[in-house]
Amino acid sequence: MIQLEHISKTFLLGDQAVHALDDVTLTIASGDYLSVMGPSGSGKSTLLNVLGLLDQPDDGHYRLEGTDTTTLSEPERARYRREHIGFVFQSYHLVNRLSARENIELPLVLAGVPPKDRAPRVNEMLERLSLTDRATHLPNQLSGGQRQRVAIGRAIIMKPQLLLADEPTGNLDSKSGADVVTLLEELNQQGITLLVVTHDLALGQRARRRIRMVDGRIDSDGT
Amino acid sequence: MIQLEHISKTFLLGDQAVHALDDVTLTIASGDYLSVMGPSGSGKSTLLNVLGLLDQPDDGHYRLEGTDTTTLSEPERARYRREHIGFVFQSYHLVNRLSARENIELPLVLAGVPPKDRAPRVNEMLERLSLTDRATHLPNQLSGGQRQRVAIGRAIIMKPQLLLADEPTGNLDSKSGADVVTLLEELNQQGITLLVVTHDLALGQRARRRIRMVDGRIDSDGT
Ligand SMILES: Nc1ncnc2c1ncn2[C@@H]1O[C@H](COP(=O)(O)OP(=O)(O)OP(=O)(O)O)[C@@H](O)[C@H]1O
Ligand SMILES: Nc1ncnc2c1ncn2[C@@H]1O[C@H](COP(=O)(O)OP(=O)(O)OP(=O)(O)O)[C@@H](O)[C@H]1O
Ligand SMILES: [Mg+2]
Ligand SMILES: [Mg+2]
Predict the structure, then answer these.
(1) B contacts of A37 (beta carbons < 8 Å)
(2) Which one of A136, A140, B179, B181 has the fewest beta carbons within 10 angstroms of its own beta carbon?
(3) What's the CATH number where A67 sits?
């Protein structure tokens, strides 16, 4: 499903070059469940941004379902993201003027799902994430962990084919974190390809396949 | 040093009342080391915001070094914060147009420390937080964990009398997290009062005194 071949991504700041991704080669089959761990700054979020079509590599090829993504125009990439990819961002990126409910509902609205079909799906998601009592709150009226759960809800409401979760439990207590992991793993059992970046060793070890990154490179890749 | 007496804080949204803090009584001696744990949404950040003079309670009294803080004007509160309190925010709140170095340096600038005295202190802090190579990066050119470390550096550079850290290791790998904890505990050993909100049980158990919050109340307070 996913083929990264000799992917590199370098940020240039003045005369300093940061090799955020350094010759990364990785094949991921549809329905896989991978964790990505590694030191702060090792390139995990950058890897997810490339996989999620949010960022283009400077070198190498990213083939997604056989298509070379570098040949896609920006509107095509945006459309592919909307239709196939769910992304839980490390810093959430919620829409500040929309409530928890409206943030989670947004992908359904963009996909043209009619209002009467949206409500039950959003209500169920709010319930699964223990956010029902906070549905009308704006992001700045939510706790850190509540915002994180809204970000998760928005990423998964469309049951996207590829789910990229960047530190999805970092601001959650053990119970809320366990509820989220249960939800993500259910989606994987239904066939969704799941990548979880995490600093939580216990969570990382739940994945069927564990990737470790160091300095922009894949240091180990095993089961 | 710190006396919270029957502190309550309620957020009103339309006709819904959220009791973020519900009759909280707590005494903290100078130099104490406390952890605050509890479910997502239980009031931990709100407690820190009240302690840090960022938010006023609706009921009860907050005495700080004998002064009833409700009698302070906003400029007096701002000055007290600047001179005595260091705050690591759950969402960092870095200044986006300032580099890592400049963000960390900011409290020294506000305190009128001369440039030639600032540089060695900032350099040492960058080194302790493994940020030397990222000193000139802007926040959007940093990884999540790097931003978290900048937020920590800024909070501690003035060695404030009271240090409030809201989930300071949430986006850090185990090594960076351990380095930060070492740094915070060193400051406590030098006499700084340290409160750490965390979802990390291992970190929470390092504190001499452990507070657990549930639904805006202190559920347990023990050593
Ligand atoms: N826009 C940018 N300009 C320059 N350097 C950048 C930029 N974005 C990221 N970097 C650098 O690239 C490296 C990889 O960043 P990335 O965000 O992928 O790390 P990470 O593994 O997700 O870290 P963390 O665990 O702290 O979230 C970091 O060292 C970071 O400073
Ligand atoms: N401005 C606000 N308006 C309404 N409700 C609010 C506001 N700010 C916070 N709340 C609510 O108050 C409660 C306590 O929030 P707080 O941020 O203190 O929780 P927390 O314990 O820090 O949670 P987390 O572990 O998720 O960070 C939450 O249920 C939250 O939804
Ligand atoms: Mg990251
Ligand atoms: Mg909080």
Answers:
(1) 173
(2) A140
(3) 3.40.50.300
